Amino acid sequence: QSAVSVPRDFEGCSTLRKYLGQLHFLQSRIPMGSGQDAAVPVTWTEIFSGKAVTHEDIKYEQACVLYNLGALHSMLGAMDKRVSEECAAGAFTYLRDHFPHSYSVDMSHQILSLNINLMGGQAQECLLEKSMLDNRKSFLVARISAQVVDYYKEACRALENSETASLLGKIQKDWKKLVQMKIYYFAAVAHLHMGKQAEEQQKFGERVIYFQSALDKLNEAIKLAKGQPETVQEALRFTMDVIGGKYNSAKKDNDFIYHEAVPALDTLQSVKGAPLVKALPVNPTDPAVTGPDIFAKLVPMAAHEASSLYSEEKAKLLRDVMAKIEAKNEVLEYVRGPALLPHGTVDNLDMYNHIPPVLMEKCAALSVRPDTVRNLVQSMQVLSGVFTDVEASLKEIRDLLEEDEAQERKLQELLGRVPPAPGSPPGLAEVSKECSKYLELHEKASFTNTELHRAMNLHLGNLRLLGGPLEQVRAALPTPSLSEDDKQVLQNLKRILAKVQEMRDQRMSLEQQLREMIQKDDITTSLVTTDRSEMKKLFEEQLKKYDQLKVYLEQNLAAQENVLKALTDANVKYAAVRKALAEVEHKWNTTVQTLVASYEAYEDLMKNAQEGKDFYTDLEGKAAKLLERARAACQASEAHRQQLLER
């Protein structure tokens, strides 16, 4: 209802645009077109004939609203200041290009073309006035004026059409005469300014012919202007004064001063028009104009299907982009790899400036246990003492047994008897047997004892180091020795790797932006209002929104070749430095691990030393008792031999 009786102001334009948009949204969901199930009769009055015209087609409603929007634009343009290049042709152009011309005579192709060119011509007139007031260059003013002529010539052709003549009646003759008058008038203005340009270029012969042509065309305009208002007559007289004065002055100067040949007009280059007006655009689905879609919750199945097709187009775009990114990343990692040490950096020189935390932890633990080394040394000494005592006892027993055995052999030789004499002490055999058993135990334990002492000696120096000043610990760790050239090689490689990382970060950021953009891209609302035949075109237009991101990604990927070339060259120089750094790092890690192992071995060493001490203490007690028994048995054996000799 508001659209039928709009106020004649910009608010009225807004109402018509909103109604047009909502009609577009409605027709996308409800079959209200000609011959469709929900079509209803739509009636409007034809402006020229006054007849009521009815069609069962929602597009007719839209067409009439568009026509009224163009008409209202033209009325507001007539009331506005003549300084804008915007014109009312937009609505008529959209109507001509997007709707059937058979609804009514006033919507025929000829009438709409007439309206479009009349609006364009009048808007171009406004631009012409402004350009002259701004003292723009003569050639530009001539081209602007020539375009006014072009618009009015097209309007005149439409007016001469028989359908247009029958529809407009008497108005047609008046309009045609006025348009023809304007054609001649603005052609005169165009040639006036071409003459002024010739004057600026000191082409005095051309100046005369252009001013003469302007004068001829102005005279034709004056003939056609009979019956026009006094304001028009006054404008024509003023123009005659200007052009007439220019022509007379130019002709006199050329006749008496310059004497240049005056060329024929048709030998000169024609003036091409410069269309600078802007038709007010019409976009029925622009939310800034239409307001919210009041049918938004009605989404046809076809729109859902089209949305799925669009999602596949987006997925294809992403797959294509990701294939390029992954291929480049693979090459990048292959070339980047040799530039890094195992821990993923170029040199890791910072590592050598401090004691690693794991080693600091061991140093701290030993600092609160200052007796660690002394306890270990004492354990070693105690163990050695007991070991020596046992070994001495067993040796003495063995010596006693061997001495007794030697004395026994002498006795046998002396007496001439091989078997032992009756009454020989039986204890020596048992002592000998136990001694052999203890010697075997001692021999086995001796190997373990030797290994324990070797391990203690191995770790003792490391434990002393860990328990000492931190400066000594730091000094014990290997450090690389780099020349100035080596440092320059490292610095250059780091700079290039920083470029590589910057390129990777930008690539990841652009990829993330693309994924997020695709994720949020939902054009279902647009699909609802788009004809099926236009879907492919809509997809192409919508996918253009990704073009800028794709360009950035292409630039990023293209830059990789130069960066990798520089990286490859730097890698060649870095190879020797890398090898040296890797060797130092290996030694450093080995040293750290050895020191940590010494700390962790301490408790085991103390435990093993205690177990060895306990073992040898027990063995020492047994060996001491056995020694006493051996001594007693040997004494008894000696006494027995003396008895035999005395007999």
Automatic annotation (TrEMBL):
GO terms for cellular component: endosome. Its main location: cytoplasm. Keywords: Coiled coil, Cytoplasm, Endosome. Signal peptide: none annotated. Residues 1-332 form the BRO1 domain. One of its GO terms (biological process) is protein transport to vacuole involved in ubiquitin-dependent protein catabolic process via the multivesicular body sorting pathway. It comes from the Eukaryota. Pfam families: ALIX_LYPXL_bnd, BRO1. The keyword Coiled coil applies. Residues 387-417, 493-520 form a coiled coil. It is found in: Cytoplasm; Endosome. This is PTN23 phosphatase. It comes from Sylvia borin.
